[in-house]
Structure formats: structure tokens, C-alpha cells
């Protein structure tokens, strides 16, 4: 007797693992939550020609994701990676409500003074290491991946992003650091 043909089951949209039932988008609660966090974050960004303006919460001119998280720091960690302990996320555009990864640079407390920011801004384009991975590419890649019809690996290949890097972007591996780091620090001026 022939085995019955099972309906095609698409893997978890976040991690690619087998989902518990066909029709399920995610393998479990953890993936569902992380995916919805990413969704919630991207939905609150207004993408302009220059800055990506945060339309969500704010406090003292600083973009807030939810009540506690800094949207800038969240964005940095989502798109660019972990923020070293001694560093602050600064804006080359001087706009605290901007969450565009290409407008961030890491600074120390010293860099907080206005002229340092100005200097960095001039040197920004050529020196900044993430120039090779532009934020538009990342966002396009994420959008394509979120359609659910294509694997992470395929999207990464199509956009020329290393699959491990893209996986990090999708999974927001550094999210867990956020809760630990935030709240302990006081950010001044444009660095937060
Ligand atoms: Zn999953
Ligand atoms: Zn900006």
C-alpha cells in the first residue's frame, strides 16, 4: 500500500524548523514572539530619503521602542550587531529620532561633545565599516524574506549578504543583551 502524501509544510518563518502543524507560521512561541517584535519595530519606522524617522514612543527627544528600550540601540543591534560595553550609539545626522543603521556610529563618552560628532560626521562615509551593507539592502531583504515564500539562505544570496549575517539580522540575536544594558546607562546629547 502506498503511503498517503502529506501536505507541504513550510518551515518556521524565523528559524526554518518544522512547524507543529501545516498552516502554522512559526515553530513555537519563542519564534512567534521574536518575529512579532521585529514586525512591531519595522512598522514604527518612517523611511525617508535620508533619515529613518521613528514614529513610536519617545522620551526627551530619544526614540523609544516600547517603554524601556532605546530604538536607536535596538536598531543598531538588529542591523549591525552587538554594541561593545564601553560604546554608545551616536547619530551622524544628529537626529535622536533617527533609527537608520547607516546613520549610526559607535562613540565613547568623549565623543559626546558636539565637535567630535561634527568631525565624525565628516569622516563618516568613507570610514564607516558598514558601508558595504547598506540599510536599504537589508530592509529590502527583510521584506522579501517576510513574504514567507523564500528561505533565508536564498534571500541572503540574492542580496549578497552573508547568510550568517542575514540570519543574525532576522533573528536579532543581540536582543537579549538589550535588557541587561539598558537602564544602567545614562546617555547624553546625541549618544544613547
Ligand atoms: Zn522557529
Ligand atoms: Zn539619520
Describe the 3D structure.
The chain has 192 residues and is α+β, with helices and mostly antiparallel strands. The protein has a domain at 36-130 and 174-181. Helices cover 39% and strands 11% of the residues. The protein has seven helices and seven strands; from the N terminus they run αβββββαββααααα. It has helices at residues 29-43, 71-79, 114-127, 135-146, 152-159, 163-171, 175-181, and strands at 45-47, 52-54, 58-59, 62-65, 69-70, 88-91, 104-107. The strands form three sheets. Strands 3-4-5 form a three-stranded antiparallel β-sheet. Strands 1-2 form a two-stranded antiparallel sheet. Strands 6-7 form a two-stranded antiparallel ribbon. Helix 4 (135-146) packs antiparallel against helix 5 (152-159) and helix 5 (152-159) crosses helix 6 (163-171). The longest helix is centred in the N-terminal third of the chain and has 15 residues, at 29-43. The protein is elongated. The model is unreliable at 122-132 and 173-192 (pLDDT under 50). The site of one zinc ion (ZN) has 7 residues, from loops.
Summarize the structure.
The chain is an alpha+beta fold and 192 residues long. It has a domain at 36-130 and 174-181. The chain has helices spanning 29-43, 71-79, 114-127, 135-146, 152-159, 163-171, 175-181; strands at 45-47, 52-54, 58-59, 62-65, 69-70, 88-91, 104-107.
Amino acid at each position: 500500500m502506498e503511503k498517503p502524501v502529506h501536505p507541504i509544510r513550510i518551515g518556521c518563518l524565523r528559524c526554518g524548523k518544522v512547524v507543529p502543524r501545516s498552516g502554522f507560521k512559526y515553530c513555537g512561541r519563542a519564534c512567534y514572539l521574536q518575529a512579532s517584535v521585529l514586525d512591531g519595530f519595522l512598522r514604527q519606522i518612517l523611511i525617508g530619503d535620508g533619515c529613518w524617522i521613528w514614529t513610536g514612543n519617545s522620551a526627551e527627544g530619544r526614540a523609544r521602542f516600547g517603554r524601556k528600550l532605546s530604538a536607536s540601540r535596538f536598531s543598531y543591534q538588529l542591523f549591525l550587531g552587538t554594541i561593545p560595553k564601553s560604546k554608545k550609539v551616536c547619530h551622524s545626522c544628529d537626529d535622536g529620532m533617527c533609527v537608520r543603521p547607516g546613520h549610526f556610529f559607535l562613540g565613547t563618552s568623549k565623543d559626546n561633545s558636539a565637535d567630535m560628532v561634527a568631525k565624525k560626521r565628516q569622516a563618516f562615509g568613507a570610514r564607516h565599516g558598514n558601508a558595504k551593507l547598506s540599510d536599504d539592502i537589508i530592509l529590502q531583504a527583510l521584506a522579501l524574506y517576510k513574504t514567507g515564500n523564500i528561505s533565508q539562505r536564498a534571500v541572503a544570496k540574492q542580496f549578497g549578504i552573508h547568510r550568517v549575517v542575514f540570519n543574525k539580522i532576522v533573528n536579532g540575536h543581540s536582543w537579549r543583551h538589550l535588557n541587561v544594558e539598558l537602564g544602567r546607562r545614562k546617555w547624553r546629547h546625541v549618544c544613547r
